[in-house]
Amino acid sequence: MSRFPHRTVSWLAPLALLALWEGAARGGLLSDQVLPAPSTVVATAADLTADGELPRHLLASLRRAATGFALGAAAGLGLGVLVGLSRIAESLIDRSVQMVRAVPFLAVLPLVIVWFGVGEGGKVFLIALGTGFPLYLNTVLGIRQIDPKLLEMSRVVGQGRLERVRWVILPGALPSILGGLRLALTHAWLALVIAETIGATEGIGFMATNAREFLQVDVIVLVVLLYALIGITCDLLARFLERRLLSWHASYAPGSP
Amino acid sequence: MTAPAAAPGGAEVQIRGLTRVFGDRTVLTGLDLDIRRGEFVALIGHSGCGKTTLLRLLAGLDRPDGGTVRVPPARMVVFQEHRLLPWRRVWRNVAIGLRGKDARAAAVRALAEVGLADHVDSWPRTLSGGEAQRVALARALVREPQLLLLDEPFAALDALTRIKMHALVRRLIARQRPAVLLVTHDVDEAILLADRVVAMRGGRLAAEHPVPAEATRRGSPEFARLRAALLAELGVEEAADDVTVP
After folding, report:
1. What is the ipTM of this complex?
2. A–B CB contacts, 8 A cutoff, strictly below
3. Structural domain tally of chain A?
4. Which of A252, B94, B114, B225 pairs with B136 at a CA distance of 20 to 30 A?
């Protein structure tokens, strides 16, 4: 490989940026009301953890996201498999779903508020909506893209329908389904951020909204960083699943870039 | 598909008046063919002459529009592509569709027979083209079919691998003695492997030639004579010595 230490530099660069930020904040170049120093944010995080505020709100956000994600994923995956496997289900369901999908899921926000008020239901619904569609689309696509030659081979060796689903169809669609899962996780967090700005009484989004009222910029920055961290965690989770479940696939094999 | 049943008179496969139409194109028109138990028949013809259609009908992957097809219940196909499931290890690809606890043992035995005992637990993507095709052969033979259908299984292999595969197929088939139908457009391959070569043209059999034992050696005068006859039937003017049908 090249002599330039790409990997090391790729980690050092953001660290240097962080140090620059810290320096600028301490040197008075950045006002505390604009961007508090990273050390201030960390101290705020420690304080809020100590008095139990942060864990409580974080847990509320996670529970909300997990519920919405689980509902959306179950619906998206379930319908996707059904439509992928059955022509009848396809003609019954697919076109309607495709039409509804054309609506950006955040555009229904006013409607959600009217339907559910500012309670928990609307937030969960919004997250489920953001999660369901990418999983549905990728599941259907994954099943459609299976090599018909493999399906034919399955028939030749005498596999029944159920065996064919288990041996050929689901594993064949899995790379696409996991791609959809990654997208669904991204959408779920996006939906969470938006949902928590509408009249929440707990959750990290509520923390940020509350902090805005009192100009606690350090809390706002903390919440933004937390959203980022959770996003990264989700991405790592999706990658882990891909490596684990797709080890047969050349692109995900151990040792491949 | 007509009900699989043993045909009388030692014929494992009995086809009478077989017709298959795709839209306004008649691919098979009143085709007759018998294959005896343990007989190796090679079917040659130009691309699009209907030979693959015939094989698919025998495999039960397609339905005839007319005529009758009698085939044994235990049939297996080796396709031009290996058609291994990339997400299953090699031995599972061989054991696919087998039931019972000794499925793995049977798969391992079949893999040893095709010289792949070392690759039992490999992923298919780590195999070469020739190795993958040998796994496909093991997958077919592990079921001990009464009728083995070979759909140009060597066409995608390099010349050296193909020669090795020919020897392997001959050895394995000599042991199990299934009826074999090999679809190919390689006249040399047909002569070297088959007991009988049939040529197809315009949706029916145009000619059939038993292969004398002396002709199965490349370079023998019988080989050259049979080859010239078959090429002539396919409408290929033999200009050079090593022309094969495209």
Report:
1. 0.85
2. 52
3. 1
4. A252
